[in-house]
């Protein structure tokens, strides 16, 4: 039987080979190939590539089970907070410095973690106040300068959280997390595009480039349990870069008396709204190093920030200055506690918390008190 077009086998047929046909579609013979062996070769190459990437990721200190902390993951926890006995909001300090397992071991309640790095705790306090279903205890962790800043920060998406509830978004994060639980090289902070971006120290004079970014600091587990990435403790170059990127907390928005007063007014409205429906609020100030504290105090002195906040909202507060067990803990990059010291701080502030609110009770079988010697 003659093949269409009478061209040698394998040559592509074009419109000129088929005159008179409407809208002719070019065709070409598929040559015989050892497709089975080709497929096996592709799969072997893929397997070797994945193994090489994974071995390199482990060499860099990355771990399987370190999950991306996405907007969708936060929204899922926000939904869980509707019926939670305890929820935590705030910036990255209370996020890094709270050990959810230790919290649960002490009082038998596991809080919902809603803190977001680089975000004003005031933004999240107001979001919690807008959640009419929440009637539990809200722990508001704050860095003073972050709390009173005039913008939301990275967590501005909480005001449009409905954008992250689509079935595709939820399915995508489930697939992503399922793979990240098994593969370390999927860490978004160490993607090739991210690493290549960091090779450029600056874009142009006066414009901050990737060198100025805060690089990977955290490991994130299930239910947004967040700890400091251990490599920050052991790698001097990464640790010094993080300290440099903080810039000593010197370059911040000018905090005028009017701006601070507005922050106090917003906080009072939010706290009053939570209390009106049966909830309660306690403020927590996690540690920061002396190198940062001096500049934080220069911008928002404790007397006009923290002290007025508690008085104005009629709230209980736990400041690390008042916790002997929280003094002298390890802050590798000056702003967040090491993983083990986060457990010590959690132990200290939860034990004080049960003294300040009847909503929590220390379990009869609670473990013994931790102190600085357990982590430094």
Strand order of the largest sheet: 2-1-3-6-7
The CATH architecture term of the domain at 84-155 and 210-374 is 3-Layer(aba) Sandwich
Using the coordinates shown, work out and report the CATH topology of the domain at 84-155 and 210-374. Rossmann fold
| SSE-based structural type | alpha/beta
Q: Write the CATH homologous superfamily of the domain at 84-155 and 210-374.
A: SGNH hydrolase
Q: Residue share in helices?
A: 40-55%
Task: Please tell me what the overall shape is.
Answer: elongated
For the terminal residues, how far apart are their CA atoms? 85 Å
Q: Hey, roughly how much beta strand do the residues contain?
A: 5-15%
Mean of pLDDT:
90
Q: Tell me, what is the CATH class of the domain at 84-155 and 210-374? A: Alpha Beta
| Tally of contiguous helical segments | 14
Number of strands: 7
Task: Give a description of the structure.
The protein is α/β, with parallel strands linked by helices. It has a domain at 84-155 and 210-374: SGNH hydrolase (Rossmann fold), CATH 3.40.50.1110. It has 14 helices and seven strands. It has helices spanning 35-59, 71-80, 92-96, 100-107, 121-129, 144-147, 167-180, 192-197, 230-234, 236-246, 257-276, 290-299, 306-313, 339-356, and strands spanning 86-90, 112-113, 137-141, 218-220, 226-228, 280-285, 316-319. The strands form two sheets. The chain has a five-stranded parallel sheet, sandwiched between helices. Strands 4-5 form a two-stranded antiparallel ribbon. Helix 5 (121-129) packs parallel to helix 11 and helix 11 (257-276) runs parallel beside helix 13 (306-313). It starts with 34 loop residues before the first helix and ends in a 20-residue tail after the last helix.
């Amino acid at each position: 039987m003659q093949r269409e077009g009478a061209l040698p086998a394998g040559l592509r047929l074009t419109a000129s080979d088929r005159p008179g046909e409407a809208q002719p579609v070019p065709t070409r013979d598929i040559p015989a190939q050892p497709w089975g062996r080709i497929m096996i070769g592709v799969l072997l190459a893929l397997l070797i590539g994945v193994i090489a990437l994974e071995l390199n990721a482990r060499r860099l200190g990355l771990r399987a089970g370190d999950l991306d902390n996405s907007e969708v993951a936060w929204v899922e926890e926000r939904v869980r907070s509707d019926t939670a006995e305890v929820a935590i909001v705030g910036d990255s300090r209370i996020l890094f410095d709270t050990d959810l397992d230790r919290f649960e071991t002490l009082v038998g309640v596991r809080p919902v973690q809603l803190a977001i790095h680089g975000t004003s705790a005031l933004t999240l306090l107001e979001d919690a106040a807008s959640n009419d279903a929440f009637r539990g205890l809200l722990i508001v962790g704050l860095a003073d300068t972050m709390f009173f800043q005039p913008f939301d920060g990275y967590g501005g998406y909480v005001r449009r959280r409905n954008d992250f509830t689509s079935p595709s978004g939820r399915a995508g994060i489930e697939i992503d997390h399922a793979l990240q639980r098994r593969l370390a090289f999927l860490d978004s902070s160490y993607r090739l595009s991210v690493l290549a971006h960091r090779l450029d120290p600056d874009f142009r004079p006066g414009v901050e480039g990737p060198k100025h970014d805060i690089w990977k600091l955290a490991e994130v587990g299930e239910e947004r349990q967040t700890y400091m990435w251990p490599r920050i403790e052991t790698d001097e170059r990464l640790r010094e870069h993080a300290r440099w990127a903080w810039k000593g907390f010197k370059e911040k928005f000018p905090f005028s008396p009017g701006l601070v007063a507005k922050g106090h007014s917003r906080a009072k409205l939010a706290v009053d709204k939570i209390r009106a429906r049966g909830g309660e609020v306690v403020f927590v100030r996690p540690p920061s190093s002396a190198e940062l504290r001096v500049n934080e105090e220069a911008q928002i002195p404790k007397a006009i920030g923290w002290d007025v906040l508690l008085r104005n909202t009629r709230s209980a507060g736990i400041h690390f200055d008042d916790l002997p067990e929280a003094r002298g803990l390890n802050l590798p990059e000056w702003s967040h506690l090491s993983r083990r010291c986060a457990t010590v701080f959690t132990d200290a502030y939860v034990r004080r918390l049960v003294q300040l609110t009847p909503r929590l009770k220390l379990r009869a079988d609670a473990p013994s008190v931790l102190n600085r010697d357990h982590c430094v």
